[in-house]
Design brief:
InterPro entries: DUF4143
Oligomer: single chain
Structural class: alpha/beta
Order of helices and strands: EHHHHHHHEEEHEEE
Distance between the termini: 11 Å
Number of helices: 8
CATH architecture: 3-Layer(aba) Sandwich
Pfam family, one: DUF4143
Number of strands: 7
Low-confidence stretches: 21-36, 170-180
Radius of gyration: 20 Å
Strand order of the largest sheet: 1-6-7-5-4-3-2
Protein name: DUF4143 domain-containing protein
Length: 290
């Protein structure tokens, strides 16, 4: 099954969802496919289930099972959760532990933690896309960090809906007086979209990567490459509609790939699905599907 263009029309012929997806950042809705059993539970029960799941994972594959080692691994997992949807180096994640806890695990210990979590699918990093085109020779192979489910990342960080949306933080407000959302909202929303895209890409026998050139001059959140070599490029934006400049890297990639680019898409938290004046597909996250 190959990749194909989305059948969207210009904005005046746009489709629309029944509601905005800005309410997505809740542990209930971010239960994902792997933790689907928690989604319909009350808040307290849901948090307890997530905590139990994390504790089971932490204790599952530690050689000594000591309390100190368990606590160290959980601290590392929190630091990793704070780095989701970024290409932060493993050393930087370790150094963040020093700033928060005053203790930094040895590099070999951190690699063991990473490998253990990866083998159990607790973390699911997205590899860098390394295309063969000469124009993209500056692409880097660094992974973009992701956990298996954004609900786990949010729980590890102690982040709930109110925190994500800025509710209860009146000191930090936008110029129009609305609460300013935490920067983690964008990272966790991208994590949610990534999880969904990976599931749907599997149905098409497609691979999911991300693109970042050296120095971060060009970055595209998700690259979906089908078995025929055609590509769908996806940017994820925590906004109802793309802002000026949000599609510049998609347009840059289109110039270099030509017909190999099956489609270019911006995933939003809004309601409207349409194509902009550059024929970029704008799609609400709630409309994602295989």
């Amino acid at each position: 099954m190959g990749l194909r263009c989305l059948p969207l029309h210009p904005r005046h012929q746009a489709g629309q969802t029944e509601g905005s997806t800005i309410h997505f950042p809740t542990p209930r809705r971010w239960g994902g496919l792997r933790l689907a059993g928690t989604r319909d539970l009350p808040l307290v029960a849901r948090q307890a289930q997530l905590d139990s799941y994390i504790d089971l994972i932490v204790r599952h594959d530690l050689s000594d099972g000591s309390q100190r080692r368990t606590r160290s691994l959980k601290d590392w997992m929190r630091a990793y959760a704070a780095s989701v949807s970024t290409c932060t180096t493993l050393d930087s994640i370790n150094r963040s532990l020093t700033a928060r806890q005053g203790i930094q695990p040895a590099a070999t210990t951190a690699r063991t933690y990473r490998d253990t979590m990866a083998s159990m699918w607790m973390i699911d990093p997205v590899p860098g896309w390394m295309p063969t085109e000469n124009e993209l020779a500056r692409a880097t192979a660094a992974d973009k960090h992701q956990m298996c489910d954004p609900a786990l990342a949010a729980r590890l960080l102690g982040i709930g809906t109110a925190h994500l949306l800025g509710v209860g933080h009146p000191i930090v407000r936008t110029p129009i007086g609305q609460p300013r959302r935490t920067r983690m909202l964008g990272f966790l929303f991208e994590s949610l979209v990534t999880q969904s895209v990976q599931v749907y890409a599997d149905l098409c026998q497609a691979d999911v990567r991300h693109l970042r050139t050296k120095g971060g001059r060009q970055e595209i959140d998700l690259i979906v490459e089908g078995p025929d070599g055609r590509v769908v490029a996806i940017e994820v934006k925590t906004a109802a509609a793309p802002r000026p400049g949000d599609t510049r890297h998609l347009l840059w990639l289109r110039e270099r790939l030509g017909d190999r680019l099956a489609d270019a898409v911006v995933i939003t938290t809004g309601r409207d699905a349409y194509r902009d004046t550059d024929s970029i597909a704008v799609v609400p996250a709630s409309l994602l599907g295989p």
